[in-house]
Specification:
The chain is α/β, with parallel strands linked by helices. It has one domain (2-143): 3-Layer(aba) Sandwich (Ribose 5-phosphate Isomerase B, Chain: A). Helix content is 47%, strand content 16%. It has 6 helices and 5 strands. Strands 2-1-3-5-4 form a 5-stranded parallel sheet, sandwiched between helices. Helix 4 (90-98) runs parallel beside helix 5. It is globular.
């Protein structure tokens, strides 16, 4: 799996904490920006990360952050083949992968504390898609 991470200014601090966490766990990632707290347009970052995930959708995953997580999830989900899940709990992280085969995890840097974010990221990265009846539903989403 190749992991990409990006945030706007509202998610920058949490992104930096997640990067440290991933590094401590020896999980490789590619940081697509932003690299400061200066204001940026989150749709551009959602576009970047979506394109990277779609280069190899069966192996690539992403983590996107903004202040609330809402903006990046809306922007990422505009791309066919992207299933970006706005998550604020471990349960939702698990279900987003197991039932929906989510390939981008979205979180709000102003909403979630770092310890919860670490648990969410771990769950998102370690939960496999269940397939079965859920595969049919994912295929229907792709058709629409």
């Amino acid at each position: 799996m190749t992991l990409f991470i990006a945030s706007d200014h509202g998610g920058f601090e949490l992104k930096e904490e997640i990067k440290s966490f991933l590094s401590q766990k020896n999980i490789l990632f590619d940081d697509l920006g932003t690299h400061t707290t200066e204001s940026v347009n989150y749709p551009e970052l959602a576009q970047k990360i979506s394109q990277k995930v779609l280069e190899n959708p069966s192996k690539n995953r992403g983590i996107l952050l903004c202040g609330s997580g809402i903006g990046v999830s809306i922007a990422a989900n505009r791309h066919k083949g992207i299933r970006a899940a706005l998550v604020d709990s471990v349960t939702l992280a698990h279900l987003s992968r197991e039932h929906n085969d989510a390939n981008i995890l979205c979180m709000g840097g102003r909403i979630i504390g770092k310890e919860v974010a670490f648990e969410i990221v771990t769950t998102f990265l370690n939960t496999e898609f269940q397939g079965g009846r859920h595969q049919t539903r994912v295929e229907l989403i792709e058709e629409y």
